[in-house]
Design brief:
Blueprint lengths: L2 H13 L2 H40 L4 E8 L8 E3 L4 E2 H8 L4 E10 L3 E4 L2 E4 L3 E5 L9 E4 L8 E5 H7 L7 E6 L2 E11 L9 E5 H4 L3 E3 L5 E5 L1 E6 L5 H14 L3 H4 L5 E6 H44 L1 H9 L4 H38 L7 H27 L3 H6 L2
Parallel strand pairs: 7-12, 9-11
Antiparallel strand pairs: 1-2, 1-15, 1-16, 3-14, 4-7, 4-15, 5-6, 5-10, 8-11, 9-12, 10-11, 13-14
Helix pairs in contact: 1-10, 2-8, 2-10, 2-11, 8-10, 8-11, 10-11
């Protein structure tokens, strides 16, 4: 039997059982549709984050120092907030060649914040730092604060939260030591997903967390350091020097826990790390969605076996007029492959449609995962062929004499 003839017969057979063929392909459609949807959403989320970083910090020669802590279950990354980077460490880093500034970054345990008659408990972070922290920040309005003042910079997440807040207004925060009122001098742009509403205040006089150092002194200590290099060309050398100091000679190397790790990262490192986590989560979810493909393959195989039983007399007639086993196998394989291809094509279209809807609702860029679309089509064809092998072999083994006696 010529392949074109087998194709025509298969299409006619599928067309004569439209509802059953549609239900048979449903498992493949759902499986591939789910895979493509998650890849579009994962790609859109990833591009959204990296795009925001690139837009604001593409030319910023900066490093972030923080402490990586063990993750329960071992999946993902967590960073600690223990204050292990002392004033001594800050001064030593500032003395390294190529370092422009080292801005300490601490968290003040605020209980409540107030703006006018609006009060908020939790949610809003109060962070202490130095004006150098804002060297590469984009000010929507105003400017940085001055040290040793009750001035503050807020991010636009807080601006969005409180609504009409503006430069020159006052805002206050409350700790167990009392309430402090601040004059707002600037609003910075921080549109990254996961960044909370924040108030930035000067280290002096607002931050007072200190630790006893290995050198026997009592120093102010911070959980993070924001470092600026003198140029983008100096950044790799500065990163190596800072890493060597912090891991070998610093107070932090002795103050950190045994399972904790000091990490010095460029913005590219941070972006790569975020993208890697998103990719891992996406692959995990796609793996779960792939179970639907297995169900789809079983569905096609089941229907093809039923089809062999229903068409036993037809198979017998074909063999009686000269059809060979390979012709029967070819006929059933073509039929199951068509079901797989149709399921893959509809699944890809469905996945792109749902993905487009999701990215538009979330405000993420639309991403077309061409490699995964190609894989989906190949998987659809493979599912069709694999699920049709046994039914085709079973059809080829039908005895024509017994088949012709079948009613």
């Amino acid at each position: 039997m010529r392949p074109l003839e087998a194709l025509k017969i298969s299409i006619r057979t599928i067309g004569s059982h439209k509802l059953r063929s549609t239900l048979t392909s449903l498992g493949v459609i759902i499986g591939i549709g789910a895979v493509i949807t998650f890849m579009v959403l994962g790609g859109g989320f990833s591009d959204s984050i990296t795009g925001e970083f690139d837009e604001l910090y593409s030319d910023a020669p900066t490093l972030l120092v923080q402490t990586e802590i063990p993750v329960p279950g071992g999946f993902g990354i967590m960073y600690g907030t223990s204050p292990i980077y002392t004033e001594h460490d800050i001064n030593q880093i500032e003395a390294i060649q190529g370092v422009d500034f080292a801005a300490p970054w601490g968290i003040i345990p605020a209980i409540q914040t107030s703006y006018g008659d609006k009060k908020m408990t939790g949610t809003i972070q109060v962070q202490a730092t130095t004006p150098e922290m804002f060297t590469y920040e984009n000010f929507i309005e105003g400017e940085s604060f001055q040290q040793a003042t009750n001035q503050a910079v807020i991010n636009n997440q807080l601006f969005n939260y409180y609504g009409e807040i503006k430069v020159g207004d006052t805002i206050s925060y409350t700790t167990d030591r009392g309430t402090t009122t601040l004059n707002i001098t600037g609003i910075i742009e921080e549109d990254f997903m996961g960044v909370p509403p924040a108030i930035y205040v000067p280290i002096d006089p607002h931050y007072s967390i200190s630790v006893e150092t290995p050198r026997g002194t009592n120093d102010l200590a911070y959980p993070f350091i924001w470092i600026g290099a003198t140029s983008i060309e100096e950044l790799p050398t500065v990163k190596d020097s800072v890493t060597q100091y912090l891991t070998m000679e610093s107070d932090a190397s002795q103050l950190k826990g045994e399972d904790e790790k000091i990490v010095v990262q460029t913005l590219d490192d941070l972006i790569a790390q975020i993208v890697d986590i998103i990719d891992q989560v996406t692959i995990f979810v796609v793996g779960i969605a792939g179970i639907a493909l297995v169900v789809g393959a079983i569905g096609i195989a089941n229907i093809m076996i039923v089809s062999v039983v229903e068409r036993t007399r037809e198979i017998g007639i074909m063999k009686a007029v000269g059809a060979k086993n390979r012709d029967i196998i070819q006929l059933f394989l073509v039929e199951s492959t068509i079901l797989g291809i149709v399921g893959a094509a509809v699944g890809v279209a469905l996945g792109l449609g749902v993905g487009w809807l999701g990215t538009n609702l979330m405000g993420w860029p639309m991403v077309y995962p061409l490699d995964w679309i190609t894989i989906a089509v190949i998987v659809g064809i493979a599912v069709g062929i694999a699920s049709g092998l046994y039914p085709a072999w079973r059809a080829a083994k039908v005895d024509p004499i017994i088949a012709l006696r079948t009613e």
